[in-house]
């Protein structure tokens, strides 16, 4: 199988193009190929498939073999992939996702090189049962969650996939590995959850570290950065546009007041191409 190793701020993917549909063994392949010791090594396995609603469809399997509804960093990588290979002719493309519908992407290209990718990530979902969180409310803001004898305050947001945003004194030094796995599988989240630990530095800058559902600690999470910005606005902590600093670098996120859509801007990079026996 031919593949391209790509990343968005160090959130890395094995990108596969050419299949007509998601292979039935995609979960097993994701587990095997994403393994960093016995496989290629990645946070996820991404398929670029034909779409009737957009230019292409993206499906993403986490490294544990579970399928995610959406992935912000992967959608930037997919967009760069199809542009670089001449599979689309415009710098404006549409990528279909299974959890967040069709997403409009704008590539900033300089001398044929994709510099940044801006994705219209759509409207955030705030209603508890739709996120889903086992709290029947129009929004789930600054609620209590208890794990292993410790209480946290959290805000839940779906960007097509579920997120739990928790503000801590210092996200950079916070013990992600101690609390991420416990909160990921907390019974409040029936489909598990991506957990973001955030520290607001100013009204336009937030530090964030992520424990991803199905992948563990990753260097960046695009949907997590969007959820963090939405949460920060709802809790009165930031303006509607902010830089979200992740371990792998920065994303610019804006929650547009006029259309209620969240816009994410960041890079996408190719590491190498290869062939693997499956
Ligand atoms: N890294 C991603 C999100 C990938 C999916 C996530 N682990 C989930 O299961 O929802 C991003 O950049 O958004």
Automatic annotation (TrEMBL):
Key word Isomerase present: yes
One Gene Ontology CC term in the entry: cytosol
Sample GO molecular function, one term: diaminopimelate epimerase activity
InterPro entries linked to this entry: DAP_epimerase_AS (IPR018510), DAP_epimerase_DapF (IPR001653)
GO biological process, one term: lysine biosynthetic process via diaminopimelate
Binding locations of substrate: 11, 62, 72-73, 161, 194, 212-213, 222-223
Site location (Could be important to modulate the pK values of the two catalytic cysteine residues): 163, 212
Enzyme Commission number(s) of this protein: 5.1.1.7
Pfam family, one: DAP_epimerase
Active site: 71 (proton donor), 71, 221 (proton acceptor)
Pathway(s) of this molecule: Amino-acid biosynthesis; L-lysine biosynthesis via DAP pathway; DL-2,6-diaminopimelate from LL-2,6-diaminopimelate: step 1/1
UniProtKB keywords: Amino-acid biosynthesis, Cytoplasm, Isomerase, Lysine biosynthesis
Listed Gene3D superfamilies: Diaminopimelate Epimerase, Chain A, domain 1
Subunit structure, interactors included: Homodimer.
HAMAP family (UniProt xref): DAP_epimerase
Function: Catalyzes the stereoinversion of LL-2,6-diaminopimelate (L,L-DAP) to meso-diaminopimelate (meso-DAP), a precursor of L-lysine and an essential component of the bacterial peptidoglycan.
Homology family: Belongs to the diaminopimelate epimerase family.
Name the UniProt record assigns to this protein: Diaminopimelate epimerase
Name of encoding gene: dapF
């Amino acid at each position: 199988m031919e593949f391209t190793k790509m990343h968005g701020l160090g959130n890395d993917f094995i990108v596969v193009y050419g299949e007509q549909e998601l292979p039935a063994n995609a979960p097993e392949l994701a587990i095997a190929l994403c393994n960093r010791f016995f496989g290629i090594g990645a946070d996820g396995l991404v398929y670029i498939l034909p779409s009737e609603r957009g230019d292409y469809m993206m499906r993403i399997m986490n490294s544990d073999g579970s399928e995610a509804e959406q992935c912000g960093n992967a959608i930037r990588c997919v967009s760069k992939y199809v542009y670089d290979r001449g599979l689309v002719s415009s710098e404006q493309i549409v990528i279909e996702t299974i959890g967040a519908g069709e997403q409009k992407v704008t590539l900033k290209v300089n001398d044929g090189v994709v510099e940044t990718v801006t994705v219209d990530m759509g409207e955030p979902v705030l209603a508890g049962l739709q996120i889903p969180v086992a709290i029947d409310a129009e929004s789930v803001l600054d609620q209590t969650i208890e794990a292993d004898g410790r209480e946290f305050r959290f805000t839940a947001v779906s960007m097509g996939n579920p997120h739990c945003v928790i503000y801590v004194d210092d996200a950079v030094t916070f013990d992600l590995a101690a609390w991420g796995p416990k909160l990921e599988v907390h019974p409040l989240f029936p489909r598990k959850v991506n957990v973001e630990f955030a520290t607001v530095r100013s009204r336009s800058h937030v530090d964030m570290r992520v424990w991803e559902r199905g992948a563990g600690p990753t260097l960046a999470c695009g949907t997590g950065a969007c959820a963090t910005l939405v949460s920060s606005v709802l809790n009165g902590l930031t303006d509607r546009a902010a830089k979200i600093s992740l371990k792998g670098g920065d994303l610019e996120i804006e929650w547009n007041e006029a259309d209620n859509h969240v816009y994410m801007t960041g890079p996408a990079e190719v590491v190498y191409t290869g062939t693997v026996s499956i």
